[in-house]
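Design request, tokens follow.
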């Protein structure tokens, strides 16, 4: 449950997030799926707020998401999600069986490690500048790596033949 205005005093967790960040979106899904209350703190990536010293004092990586829980800062979406699953009872994000957990982790890492880094804002800004690409050139790059990543994911899913709620 997302915390509304005025309820921050009742919430231990604060999520530093950006609405279009897929990594932040993963954590928001996990928090909401588990029914955990949190205070969202917007960090505007296109405006460079993640590079400001104020935010870097919270997360030195200058990335979103970052989750503050009881005064501790957690970073990296998959690590945050596993932390939430280990610390907070309720619907589990990962299955009980070790082989099934490895399958879910591998699926997640195809997205988080193979697709996401090639398509995030800082990568697109770099290739635009370094290779003097216009919007269409950046979009060609973006589409190529999205298609390649989803081909890998679809092949992985088909090869393993696992279907279900995970």
């Amino acid at each position: 449950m997302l915390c509304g205005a005025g309820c921050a005093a009742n919430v231990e967790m604060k999520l530093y997030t950006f609405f279009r960040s897929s990594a932040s979106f993963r954590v928001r899904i996990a928090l909401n799926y588990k029914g955990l209350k949190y205070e969202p703190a917007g960090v505007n990536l296109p405006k460079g707020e993640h590079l400001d010293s104020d935010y870097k004092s919270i997360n030195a990586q200058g990335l979103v998401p970052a989750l503050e829980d009881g005064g501790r800062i957690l970073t990296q979406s998959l690590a945050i999600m596993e932390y939430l699953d280990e610390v907070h009872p309720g619907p589990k994000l990962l299955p009980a069986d070790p082989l099934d957990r490895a399958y879910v982790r591998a699926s997640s890492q195809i997205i988080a490690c193979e697709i996401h880094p090639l398509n995030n804002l800082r990568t697109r800004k770099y290739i635009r500048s370094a290779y003097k690409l216009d919007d269409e050139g950046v979009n060609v790059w973006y589409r190529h790596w999205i298609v390649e990543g989803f081909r890998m994911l679809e092949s992985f899913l088909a090869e393993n033949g696992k279907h279900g709620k995970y």
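Comment from the thread starter after seeing the answer: thanks! DSSP finds six helices and four strands in the chain.
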